[in-house]
Amino acid sequence: MTAFRLLRYFSTVLNSLRYILETHPSGSDSQGCGRFTSLRTVTEKSLMPLKTIIFNVLFVFILLSHIPAHSFMSDTEIASFQKEIADKPVGERIALWAEKFMGTPYDPDPLGEYVTKKVIVADERVDCMYLSFRAVELAMSISPDEAIRIALDKRFINKGKLDGKGNVVNYDDRFQYGEDMLDSGKWDREITKEFGEVTGIKGARGREKVKMLSKATMLNLLKTSKGLSALGGFKNGDFIFFIKAPEKRKVGEIVGHIGIVKVEHGEIYLIHAGGVKNKGGKVKKERLYDYISSMPFAGIRVSRFE
User: Fold this and answer.
1) Is the pLDDT reported for residue 14 higher than 70?
2) pTM of the predicted model, to two decimals?
3) How many domains does the chain contain in total?
4) Is 70 among the domain residues?
Protein backbone atom coordinates (compact mmCIF):
# COMPACT_ATOMS: atom_id res chain seq x y z
CA MET A 1 0.00 0.00 0.00
CA THR A 2 1.48 3.36 -1.01
CA ALA A 3 1.90 6.26 1.38
CA PHE A 4 -0.67 8.28 -0.61
CA ARG A 5 -3.31 5.58 -0.33
CA LEU A 6 -2.61 5.16 3.37
CA LEU A 7 -3.01 8.87 3.98
CA ARG A 8 -6.25 8.95 1.99
CA TYR A 9 -7.56 5.98 3.97
CA PHE A 10 -6.49 7.66 7.21
CA SER A 11 -8.43 10.79 6.21
CA THR A 12 -11.54 8.68 5.54
CA VAL A 13 -11.23 7.00 8.93
CA LEU A 14 -10.97 10.34 10.72
CA ASN A 15 -14.00 11.70 8.86
CA SER A 16 -15.97 8.65 9.89
CA LEU A 17 -14.95 9.13 13.49
CA ARG A 18 -16.09 12.74 13.37
CA TYR A 19 -19.42 11.62 11.88
CA ILE A 20 -19.99 9.13 14.70
CA LEU A 21 -19.32 11.75 17.34
CA GLU A 22 -21.53 14.33 15.63
CA THR A 23 -24.47 11.97 15.08
CA HIS A 24 -24.24 10.50 18.58
CA PRO A 25 -23.58 13.51 20.80
CA SER A 26 -23.49 13.05 24.50
CA GLY A 27 -26.93 14.53 24.33
CA SER A 28 -28.80 16.88 26.56
CA ASP A 29 -30.57 16.18 29.77
CA SER A 30 -34.35 16.55 30.01
CA GLN A 31 -33.97 20.24 30.84
CA GLY A 32 -32.11 20.91 27.57
CA CYS A 33 -28.80 21.71 29.29
CA GLY A 34 -25.81 20.43 27.27
CA ARG A 35 -23.23 18.25 28.98
CA PHE A 36 -19.56 17.58 28.17
CA THR A 37 -19.21 15.02 25.35
CA SER A 38 -17.90 11.71 26.59
CA LEU A 39 -17.46 8.35 24.91
CA ARG A 40 -19.22 6.86 27.91
CA THR A 41 -22.47 8.47 26.71
CA VAL A 42 -22.26 7.08 23.18
CA THR A 43 -25.02 4.55 22.70
CA GLU A 44 -24.26 0.84 22.64
CA LYS A 45 -25.32 0.81 19.01
CA SER A 46 -22.67 3.34 17.99
CA LEU A 47 -19.95 1.92 20.20
CA MET A 48 -19.09 -0.97 17.89
CA PRO A 49 -18.42 1.14 14.78
CA LEU A 50 -16.50 3.56 16.98
CA LYS A 51 -14.28 0.73 18.23
CA THR A 52 -13.72 -0.39 14.65
CA ILE A 53 -12.70 3.11 13.61
CA ILE A 54 -10.29 3.48 16.53
CA PHE A 55 -8.73 0.14 15.59
CA ASN A 56 -8.38 1.31 11.98
CA VAL A 57 -6.74 4.55 13.07
CA LEU A 58 -4.16 2.61 15.10
CA PHE A 59 -3.63 0.23 12.19
CA VAL A 60 -2.91 3.11 9.80
CA PHE A 61 -0.49 4.70 12.27
CA ILE A 62 1.42 1.41 12.47
CA LEU A 63 1.59 1.13 8.67
CA LEU A 64 2.71 4.73 8.28
CA SER A 65 5.46 4.23 10.84
CA HIS A 66 6.95 1.49 8.67
CA ILE A 67 7.12 3.55 5.50
CA PRO A 68 10.83 4.25 4.83
CA ALA A 69 11.77 7.74 5.96
CA HIS A 70 13.97 8.26 2.94
CA SER A 71 14.05 6.55 -0.41
CA PHE A 72 17.59 5.92 -1.63
CA MET A 73 18.53 4.41 -5.00
CA SER A 74 17.33 1.16 -6.53
CA ASP A 75 19.88 -1.52 -7.43
CA THR A 76 19.48 -0.54 -11.09
CA GLU A 77 20.25 3.10 -10.29
CA ILE A 78 23.20 2.10 -8.12
CA ALA A 79 24.67 -0.09 -10.88
CA SER A 80 24.19 2.72 -13.41
CA PHE A 81 26.02 5.27 -11.25
CA GLN A 82 28.80 2.79 -10.49
CA LYS A 83 29.35 2.39 -14.22
CA GLU A 84 29.19 6.15 -14.79
CA ILE A 85 32.00 6.94 -12.32
CA ALA A 86 34.07 3.76 -12.74
CA ASP A 87 36.99 5.58 -14.39
CA LYS A 88 37.43 8.11 -11.59
CA PRO A 89 40.00 7.68 -8.78
CA VAL A 90 38.71 5.72 -5.79
CA GLY A 91 38.75 8.78 -3.50
CA GLU A 92 36.62 10.70 -5.96
CA ARG A 93 34.16 7.82 -6.12
CA ILE A 94 33.95 7.66 -2.33
CA ALA A 95 33.13 11.38 -2.12
CA LEU A 96 30.54 11.12 -4.92
CA TRP A 97 28.78 8.24 -3.17
CA ALA A 98 28.82 10.11 0.12
CA GLU A 99 27.11 13.03 -1.66
CA LYS A 100 24.39 10.70 -2.88
CA PHE A 101 23.37 10.21 0.76
CA MET A 102 22.97 13.91 1.49
CA GLY A 103 19.62 14.58 3.14
CA THR A 104 19.27 10.98 4.35
CA PRO A 105 17.85 10.93 7.91
CA TYR A 106 20.08 9.99 10.81
CA ASP A 107 19.69 6.41 12.06
CA PRO A 108 18.10 6.53 15.55
CA ASP A 109 18.96 2.92 16.41
CA PRO A 110 21.70 2.84 19.09
CA LEU A 111 23.27 -0.25 17.50
CA GLY A 112 22.62 0.83 13.94
CA GLU A 113 19.55 -0.27 12.03
CA TYR A 114 21.65 -2.49 9.79
CA VAL A 115 22.96 -4.37 12.84
CA THR A 116 19.56 -4.78 14.48
CA LYS A 117 18.01 -6.03 11.23
CA LYS A 118 21.08 -8.18 10.47
CA VAL A 119 21.36 -6.78 6.95
CA ILE A 120 24.12 -5.27 4.83
CA VAL A 121 21.98 -2.68 3.03
CA ALA A 122 19.92 -0.24 5.12
CA ASP A 123 20.20 2.98 3.14
CA GLU A 124 17.01 4.70 4.35
CA ARG A 125 18.61 5.92 7.60
CA VAL A 126 22.34 6.14 8.31
CA ASP A 127 24.81 7.03 11.04
CA CYS A 128 28.41 8.12 10.50
CA MET A 129 29.84 4.61 10.58
CA TYR A 130 27.29 3.17 8.15
CA LEU A 131 27.81 6.12 5.78
CA SER A 132 31.55 5.42 5.83
CA PHE A 133 31.02 1.71 5.22
CA ARG A 134 28.56 2.18 2.40
CA ALA A 135 30.46 4.92 0.56
CA VAL A 136 33.57 2.73 0.42
CA GLU A 137 31.68 -0.44 -0.52
CA LEU A 138 29.85 1.24 -3.38
CA ALA A 139 32.95 3.09 -4.56
CA MET A 140 35.13 -0.03 -4.67
CA SER A 141 32.61 -2.21 -6.50
CA ILE A 142 31.05 -2.36 -9.95
CA SER A 143 27.70 -3.82 -8.93
CA PRO A 144 25.37 -3.87 -5.89
CA ASP A 145 26.20 -7.55 -5.31
CA GLU A 146 29.93 -6.89 -5.32
CA ALA A 147 29.37 -4.05 -2.83
CA ILE A 148 27.88 -6.62 -0.44
CA ARG A 149 30.91 -8.88 -0.84
CA ILE A 150 33.22 -5.96 -0.05
CA ALA A 151 31.08 -5.13 3.00
CA LEU A 152 31.77 -8.60 4.39
CA ASP A 153 35.41 -7.58 4.54
CA LYS A 154 35.42 -3.86 5.36
CA ARG A 155 32.83 -3.93 8.16
CA PHE A 156 34.34 -6.79 10.10
CA ILE A 157 37.38 -7.43 12.23
CA ASN A 158 37.70 -10.81 10.55
CA LYS A 159 35.07 -11.68 7.93
CA GLY A 160 31.32 -11.23 7.74
CA LYS A 161 29.07 -14.23 7.16
CA LEU A 162 25.59 -14.50 5.64
CA ASP A 163 22.98 -17.21 6.14
CA GLY A 164 20.89 -18.72 3.36
CA LYS A 165 18.50 -15.77 3.45
CA GLY A 166 21.23 -13.17 3.14
CA ASN A 167 21.13 -12.12 6.81
CA VAL A 168 24.35 -11.37 8.65
CA VAL A 169 25.00 -13.97 11.34
CA ASN A 170 28.10 -12.51 13.01
CA TYR A 171 27.69 -8.78 13.47
CA ASP A 172 29.30 -9.28 16.88
CA ASP A 173 32.56 -9.41 14.86
CA ARG A 174 31.91 -5.99 13.30
CA PHE A 175 33.93 -2.85 13.83
CA GLN A 176 32.23 -1.05 16.70
CA TYR A 177 34.92 1.56 17.26
CA GLY A 178 36.30 3.94 14.66
CA GLU A 179 39.85 3.54 15.96
CA ASP A 180 39.62 -0.21 15.33
CA MET A 181 38.66 0.48 11.71
CA LEU A 182 41.60 2.82 11.26
CA ASP A 183 44.17 0.62 12.98
CA SER A 184 43.06 -2.58 11.23
CA GLY A 185 44.72 -1.74 7.92
CA LYS A 186 41.44 -2.48 6.12
CA TRP A 187 40.79 1.24 5.83
CA ASP A 188 43.99 1.73 3.88
CA ARG A 189 46.72 4.20 4.76
CA GLU A 190 46.73 6.60 7.69
CA ILE A 191 48.07 9.98 6.56
CA THR A 192 47.61 12.05 9.73
CA LYS A 193 51.30 12.94 10.03
CA GLU A 194 51.40 14.33 6.50
CA PHE A 195 49.40 17.39 7.52
CA GLY A 196 51.51 18.73 10.34
CA GLU A 197 52.85 18.12 13.81
CA VAL A 198 50.90 15.49 15.69
CA THR A 199 50.03 15.52 19.38
CA GLY A 200 49.79 12.55 21.72
CA ILE A 201 46.56 12.01 23.63
CA LYS A 202 45.64 9.36 26.16
CA GLY A 203 44.41 6.16 24.54
CA ALA A 204 41.96 3.49 25.69
CA ARG A 205 41.19 -0.21 25.29
CA GLY A 206 44.84 -1.28 25.13
CA ARG A 207 46.19 1.84 23.42
CA GLU A 208 48.46 3.83 25.69
CA LYS A 209 48.52 6.91 23.46
CA VAL A 210 47.03 8.05 20.18
CA LYS A 211 48.67 10.48 17.78
CA MET A 212 46.39 13.13 16.33
CA LEU A 213 46.28 16.57 14.78
CA SER A 214 44.90 18.81 17.50
CA LYS A 215 41.95 21.10 16.94
CA ALA A 216 44.24 24.14 17.24
CA THR A 217 46.67 22.75 14.67
CA MET A 218 43.86 22.05 12.22
CA LEU A 219 42.40 25.53 12.58
CA ASN A 220 45.80 27.09 11.94
CA LEU A 221 46.28 24.94 8.85
CA LEU A 222 42.87 25.82 7.46
CA LYS A 223 43.34 29.52 8.19
CA THR A 224 46.69 29.75 6.47
CA SER A 225 45.76 27.74 3.41
CA LYS A 226 42.37 27.37 1.81
CA GLY A 227 44.12 25.32 -0.82
CA LEU A 228 45.24 22.43 1.37
CA SER A 229 44.02 20.16 -1.40
CA ALA A 230 46.11 21.96 -4.02
CA LEU A 231 49.15 21.70 -1.74
CA GLY A 232 48.85 17.93 -1.57
CA GLY A 233 46.75 18.03 1.57
CA PHE A 234 43.17 16.81 1.78
CA LYS A 235 41.78 14.98 -1.22
CA ASN A 236 38.32 13.79 -2.18
CA GLY A 237 37.31 10.71 -0.24
CA ASP A 238 39.72 11.14 2.66
CA PHE A 239 38.25 9.89 5.94
CA ILE A 240 38.47 12.08 9.01
CA PHE A 241 38.19 10.34 12.38
CA PHE A 242 37.35 12.81 15.13
CA ILE A 243 39.06 12.11 18.44
CA LYS A 244 37.33 12.49 21.78
CA ALA A 245 39.05 13.98 24.80
CA PRO A 246 39.53 11.30 27.53
CA GLU A 247 37.08 12.95 29.91
CA LYS A 248 34.30 12.82 27.30
CA ARG A 249 34.54 9.12 26.53
CA LYS A 250 31.73 6.87 27.75
CA VAL A 251 32.69 3.30 26.83
CA GLY A 252 36.37 3.67 26.00
CA GLU A 253 35.70 5.04 22.53
CA ILE A 254 38.53 7.19 21.14
CA VAL A 255 36.83 8.12 17.87
CA GLY A 256 33.57 10.00 18.34
CA HIS A 257 32.63 10.74 14.75
CA ILE A 258 33.66 10.04 11.13
CA GLY A 259 33.29 12.20 8.03
CA ILE A 260 34.33 12.20 4.38
CA VAL A 261 36.21 14.97 2.59
CA LYS A 262 34.94 16.65 -0.57
CA VAL A 263 37.04 19.37 -2.21
CA GLU A 264 35.22 21.96 -4.33
CA HIS A 265 36.89 24.96 -5.99
CA GLY A 266 39.77 24.86 -3.52
CA GLU A 267 37.44 24.78 -0.51
CA ILE A 268 37.41 21.73 1.75
CA TYR A 269 34.05 20.32 2.84
CA LEU A 270 33.00 17.56 5.22
CA ILE A 271 30.18 15.18 4.29
CA HIS A 272 28.92 13.45 7.41
CA ALA A 273 25.88 11.97 9.11
CA GLY A 274 25.33 14.61 11.75
CA GLY A 275 22.87 13.78 14.49
CA VAL A 276 22.20 12.25 17.87
CA LYS A 277 20.64 8.84 18.42
CA ASN A 278 16.86 9.21 18.94
CA LYS A 279 17.09 12.97 18.46
CA GLY A 280 17.28 13.32 14.69
CA GLY A 281 19.75 14.64 12.15
CA LYS A 282 20.74 13.96 8.56
CA VAL A 283 23.64 13.61 6.17
CA LYS A 284 24.94 17.05 5.27
CA LYS A 285 27.89 18.87 3.74
CA GLU A 286 29.58 21.81 5.43
CA ARG A 287 32.88 23.63 5.32
CA LEU A 288 35.52 21.70 7.21
CA TYR A 289 36.73 24.91 8.85
CA ASP A 290 33.23 25.66 10.16
CA TYR A 291 32.80 22.16 11.53
CA ILE A 292 36.19 22.05 13.24
CA SER A 293 35.70 25.54 14.69
CA SER A 294 32.65 24.38 16.64
CA MET A 295 33.32 20.67 17.06
CA PRO A 296 33.40 19.10 20.54
CA PHE A 297 36.39 16.93 19.65
CA ALA A 298 40.06 17.26 20.63
CA GLY A 299 41.54 16.51 17.22
CA ILE A 300 41.53 14.27 14.16
CA ARG A 301 43.16 11.33 12.42
CA VAL A 302 42.99 10.87 8.66
CA SER A 303 43.05 7.91 6.31
CA ARG A 304 43.06 7.62 2.52
CA PHE A 305 42.14 4.90 0.04
CA GLU A 306 44.54 4.83 -2.90
Assistant:
1) no
2) 0.76
3) 2
4) no
